[in-house]
Amino acid sequence: MMKIDRLLTITVLLLNRGRWSASELAERFEVSAKTIYRDMDALCRAGLPIVAHQGTSGGFEMMEQYTIDRYWLTAEEMGSLVTAVKGMSRALDDRELDMLLEKVKALLYKVEQGCGKGDAYEHGDVKNGPGSDRSRPSVVMDFQPWGQREGLKATVSLLKKAIQEKRTVSMRYIDSSGTAECRTMEPVSLILKGNVWYVQAYCLEREDARVFRVSRMQDVKLTNHHFEPRPMPLMERMDWEDAWSEVPEQEVVLWFGPKARRRAADVFPAEQMELLEDGSFRVRVIHKVDEWFYGMVLSFGDQVIIEHPEEAAQEVRRRAENLLNRYGNPDRQLSTFPL
Asked: pTM to 2 decimals?
């Protein structure tokens, strides 16, 4: 990392997190502690009010009440903020987000004016014609998925209100077995994973922390019962935990027909797809052979064959035969579903 980049990053870290020790910064940037001390000296000479604390809990931090002027962000960086906030506002019915979007747009407009480009934006929207390069954003974010069921945005907004007001929420939740159980929870944070909403909460019935998928919540109601937040694990991201599926990973070989190539590209990276002479292709992956796997394979219809493992191929055959028998039964409306 170039020195100027390192100095800018150190400034952001001090503004965002507070105190950093020389050893922490040296490890982060893979430089010596002496280099960090020289960087701090350079930042102080540049006029930044950095305070050094001695002792085992010592380190460097920015003087309280100090902020960076808005012009420290470029117009392009401001534009990235507008793009991100727009994407969130499409997924949430939230007046606060709408107000935030207007504020960021106003800052962007002022930054553009300060750069001599006052005619480029009007409240964050480009005034140039629709065919101009400057009117076309380089990145568009839209967290509102196609096919989302009605009412989901309202549920997310209700959960956000419950978190802000520290009120419990009652619901019926469809668990992994398909059973709808009555639950009462103390929500603490909303999580958007891809285009799927989750809520981290303390479940009063299970007396433990849980992560609920919002689309599986029914009859969601905000109660009048307030709660004091409990200690909960901080979730800045949501990674898959092996404990969620006890099925072990194993090698899987799938042979796809040519018509499946477009859809398969949504599931598997190109380096896992071996293109064959007839246009078909083979995929070799290490995967859990679980319910998600069987649903994925069946969704390709007759355009996929499981070459390995054999027991997975037999299970797909069994499920396909059950499906054929069901639709071959003229009284299928009266038949029962397998447990």
From this structure: 0.56
